[in-house]
Amino acid sequence: MVGTVILYLMLVGDLATSLSDIYLPVALSRSSIIMIVSLVCVLPLLFFRNTGPLANFSILSVLCLPYIILVVAIRAPLYADSANTDFSFFGPRVLPAMGVLAFTYSSCHAAFPNFLGLRDRSVRSWVRASSSASAGAGLISTAFAITGYLSFGANADANILNNFPASDNYINLGRLLFAATLILTVPMAFYPIRDTITEMLRIDPERHITSRVPESICTIVVFVSCALAAAVCTDLGLAYEIIGALSSSVVNFLLPSLIYLWAGTDVSLKAIIRSYWTSEDTQDLDLQDTLPLLLRHRSKTVFSVRQIGLWLTAWSVAGFGVWVMVLGTYNIGRGL
Predict the structure, then answer these.
(1) Where are the transmembrane segments (predicted)?
(2) Are 227 and 36 in contact (CB under 8 A)?
(3) What residues pair up with 153 in beta bridges, in sequence order?
């Protein structure tokens, strides 16, 4: 989540810099804009106890998205003539790209608070809500990717709005709304960081008998550190790749799979072999020989195809996470 906050601030800096160069009479550097926006607009939103007071800001942020989506979809094809597109299935940086895709699923910190926000807190309602949200986000992301690549090809920037000329006022409004959306989204990503650190240091005023001063100091120190990192880093695409390959692949692929294998299933290779051996050996025995064998193995379970399939899927996802993390990070480092 630290990487997420840094990336959001980098995006805000790129967008605000483009707008300031056009509309402000005074020239400001990108790093100055990031620090000003971070300290003036974002930091005051980080001192609530939880994200509840930010609900109205979240509504405002969501209302900005339709215009951003539509303006990119409508305006991008106007610049498609000069695009250099390559339709090969795998590009030269496929593993770093996998890391970037892993980063897009880095909102797992919001899962439990969103579950608590449901009127019907049941597994069925959660599956329906999360499935529809994931499907909608996937469609929007795919539309952005296809539109951007067909329009700008290999020259497509990590922030697609940077590919549009500064003279396009429709896009400039989209840049402004996108920057506002990101500013209102940063607190959602920062609160899990602060809650984790304050719990580790035992300075959480709700769980430990302490004042709010240490928590506030922690908030300022951690956020200012993220803002400084965003101000120093300039390559948004490289930051996406490094954070995605090195950390997001672990958080979103490896750890959930290992947690499921450890606590979410009784299936194991040893249990499968035992179950298969028990069912095979009892077929050729008479009743007198079968009863002691069944009593000895009465705790053994015959696993269903679904259980074994989920077990194999978990191992596959864990292996994929390790593959993206190790080889993706290696490829990024080799290309520096």
Answers:
(1) 28-47, 54-74, 94-112, 133-152, 172-193, 213-232, 238-263, 308-330
(2) no
(3) 84
pLDDT digits (tens, 9 = 90+) for 239-272: 777 777 777 778 888 888 999 999 888 888 888 7
Strand (E) or helix (H) holding 20: helix 2-23
pTM: 0.71
Q: What number of residues does the chain have?
A: 336
Give Rg (Cα) of the chain. 25
User: What tokens does 18 get?
Assistant: 């483009």
DSSP annotation of 84: B
Q: Which residues contact 224 (CB under 8 A, 6 or more apart)?
A: 38, 39
34-38, 51-55, 228-232, 292-296: which has the minimum mean pLDDT?
A: 292-296
Q: CA 283 to CA 294: how far, in whole Å?
A: 11
DSSP one-letter string for 100-162? HHHHTT--GGGHHHHHHT-SS-SHHHHHHHHHHHHHHHHHHHHHHHHHHHHHHBTT--SSGGG
Cβ–Cβ < 8 Å for 30, 236: no
Calpha distance 300→279 (Å, rounded) = 10
Q: Residue 167 and residue 75: Cα distance in Å, rounded? A: 12
CA–CA separation, 128 vs 122, rounded Å?
10
Q: Domain-by-domain residue ranges, the chain? A: 2-234
Q: How far apart are CA 183 and CA 57, in angstroms?
A: 10
